[in-house]
Each structure stands twice: as C-alpha cells, then as structure tokens.
Amino acid sequence: MIESLINRFDEWAIGKVWYFRLIVLIIMLYLSYKIISSDDYYSLFSGINLAFHEMGHIVFRFGGDIVAALGGTILQLLIPIAAMIVFIKTPDFTGIPFSLLWLSSNLFYVSWYMKDASAMELPLVSIGGGDAYHDWNYLFHHWGILGKEIMISNLILYFAYGIMLISIALMVLMLIRIYKINKSED
Hints:
By secondary structure, the chain is mainly alpha-helical. The chain has seven helices and no strands.
C-alpha cells in the first residue's frame, strides 16, 4: 500500500514546481510556531475548527448527552482526516501534510479545552441560545475523572506535537522528492 502511494506520488510529482510548495511549508512552519508559542493563538483554522466543533454537537445529538458532548470534538477531528483522504484520492499530495497540520491544530485546541475542565475559564459558545456548558468538564465529571484533566490533556498535547512534526517532515520530504524527480527530468 505504501509503495503504491509512493508510486502515485512520483507520477503526480512530474512537472510540479517545488518552490511553490516551499511557500506552503513556510506557512506551515509559521502556523506551527504560533500554535506552539501561545495557548490562545487563533489561527486561520480557529474559526473553522470551532464551527465544526459546534456542528458536531448537533450532528451527534441523536446519541444522547454524552455522545453529543463528545460529538463536537469527534467532528472537529474527523474533518481534517476526511480532507486528507480527499487529497490522497484526488490526488493532490500537497494537501496531505497541510491536513495533518490542521488535525494537529485541532488536537492542540482539544488539549487546551480539556485542560480547562476544572477551571472553566475559557469563553464558551452555545448554538441556538441557552446556557453553554463545558464539554470536557461535563464528560470528565460524568466519567469520574475530573481532576485528571492535566494528565489527559498533556497526552493529547504530546500527540498534537507528534502529528505537527510528522506534517512538517512529510512536507519537507515531498519537496525534496519533487525537486529530485523534476531535476532528473531536465
């Protein structure tokens, strides 16, 4: 499967210009730096992430309160994964590492939201009016693990760092491969 994907990438890379993708890498590095350096950085992903998070509560409402509370995070994480799958199938391989970066940004936000479960200092949003509730306070309390949110959020945070590093490494490898493939074509 991986060999097939590499072959598809090599075919796709013929004629592609590496330096246009270098701009994407620079944007990815900038966004990564900003996300890592501040818990309250709002990137170009922030509004999109929040919209999908809130939509997830509506989409998963059918499953009751627990599933609806989880639904925000579930949909927020599924959308960048779905985008990555679309880029693989299209193929538009430059979108794959960018989708991974989007996923990692979501994981950073989920980690920050989880970490706030006891303090509940983050501003909350409610669709359709009514009182907003803190998903992770509700879920951790329901599961009897409220007070363990720092440990859990740190696990998510480390996973977010890993996905971010993978996204950047993948983009660098793609740039090198595109350069080599097209250099040999000259």
